[in-house]
Design brief:
- This protein has 187 residues and is an alpha/beta fold.
- It has a single domain, classed as TIM Barrel (Alpha-Beta Barrel).
- It is built from ten helices and eight strands.
- It has an eight-stranded parallel β-barrel with strand order 1-2-3-4-5-6-7-8, surrounded by seven helices.
- Helix 5 runs parallel beside helix 7 and helix 8 runs parallel beside helix 9.
- The longest helix is centred in the N-terminal third of the chain and has 10 residues.
- The protein is globular, with a radius of gyration of 15 Å.
Length: 187
């Protein structure tokens, strides 16, 4: 499945990310194949995931943004048992490692805000060993810098607002892009 996911991303490189109910309703009407869930809580994450799965899409849950859960492995076991999510996103290396060990596809979100965060990438990747890296912000120069450090496929996320941003990120070497902007989802 991991190799199939890479092929799917190559064929459909724009990943919608939903951050609220309006985004959820919009993404259900798209032909996209993969969806990132960037909201939810202990009471509604199963329902949100089920709605997306029922529309035939692959679901990744950002566990850092779920309300009512602690950043502990038990949340991953809960999601594994109660949802049909295929993947996990997190900025925490230890959570990505635990999710990978449980059989989830994993995306390590790397917020590169300065030279210190850039220099810590190697250490974080060594711990997490993710399937994919999501680079935030998704600027082309950051993509190329990270590609020099790692051969893990890159998803460009954050501040992807228009077609030009999508094209620039893909041209810089990103495997896919992720955006909460519904106007970008249909590109």
């Amino acid at each position: 499945m991991k190799k199939n996911l890479l092929h799917l991303l190559e064929d459909y490189p724009v990943i919608p990310a939903v951050k609220d109910e309006a985004g959820l309703q919009a993404v259900l009407k798209t032909d996209c194949e993969i969806v990132f869930i960037l909201y939810g809580d202990v009471l509604n994450i199963v329902e949100i995931t089920n709605k997306i799965k029922e529309s035939g899409k692959i679901v990744f849950i950002n566990i850092d943004l779920l309300e009512g859960f602690a950043s502990k492995e038990i949340v991953l076991k809960y999601l594994q048992k109660n949802t049909k999510a295929e993947g996990i996103l997190s900025s925490k290396a230890s959570m990505i490692k635990a999710a990978r060990d449980l059989g989830f596809h994993t995306i390590h979100r790397l917020f590169i805000i300065d030279s210190f965060s850039f220099k810590s990438i190697d250490r974080q990747i060594e711990i997490s060993k993710p399937d994919y890296l999501e680079i935030l912000p998704g600027w082309p120069r950051l993509i190329t810098w990270v590609m020099e450090k790692s051969d893990i496929p890159i998803i460009s996320g954050g501040l992807i607002c228009c077609k030009e941003d999508v094209v620039a990120a893909l041209k810089a070497g990103a495997t896919a892009i992720c955006s909460t902007n519904p106007e970008v989802w249909t590109l």
